[in-house]
Amino acid sequence: MKKMIFVLTILSFIAVVSCNSKQGPIDKPLTSNVPSDDKTKKEGTPLADWDGNSKTLKVNASIKANNVTYNQDGYTLLERLYNTVWYQSESDFDDGRLETEEEFVLFDPTSKMVKREYENGRMDEKDEYSSLKHIEDIALKVQDDKKSRNACIVQNIEKDNFGYDVEYEGYYLEDRDTLYIVDGDNIEMVKLKLNDIINGNTTKYRDDKFVLSTKPL
Fold first, then answer.
1. Alpha helices in the chain (DSSP H)
2. Residue 136, strand partner residues
3. Are 86 and 211 in contact (CB under 8 A)?
4. Phi and psi dihedrals of 149, rounded to 5?
5. Residue pLDDT, tens place only, 92-137
6. pLDDT exceeds cutoff 70 at 87
7. Can you say how many angstroms the Cα of residue 174 is from the centroid of all Cα atoms in its chain?
């Protein structure tokens, strides 16, 4: 997982503000899609039609209902993560300076994971892709069966100059704008972590919690 997220470190908040006053705002990547948490629907919700406070569609988005596809067998969580951007942010003082670290995870239109580097608050146009293969679902014990397929294990394959780097990752969509991402050397290790989070033991997995990127800096 550590290879598939990029890190932007801001050494000084004051320095960044000063810099941005000359260069314009930081180009924080925003999600274009809010993923569906209903396994029968692959399509999510466009960000413009999303009310993050109530976690529901805006009223004017109801006219788009005819564009939603239904599949009784269900779409995997990986399929429903297309065109989403997730991030986590942590700030702390070091030698009197405020340091902010942000990590972003991006999924492209086919749900491949994308790595993009940031430099001076700007996005590098070069994309590095990691191939993701769905391995299995972790069934959730919920009253609404449509919500039972919101955790899964995938195989992550990244090609570099030394060959292929393969590891396993687990995704858990706690709600439509909260995603846990854990990793491990094998499926059983990932499965244990996922089940731990699903059962409510989330405190020790704070570093694995990402929120949907819906608002600019």
1. 13-23, 77-80, 187-198
2. 153
3. yes
4. -115, 40
5. 666 667 666 678 889 989 888 876 655 545 556 666 678 899 999 9
6. yes
7. 12
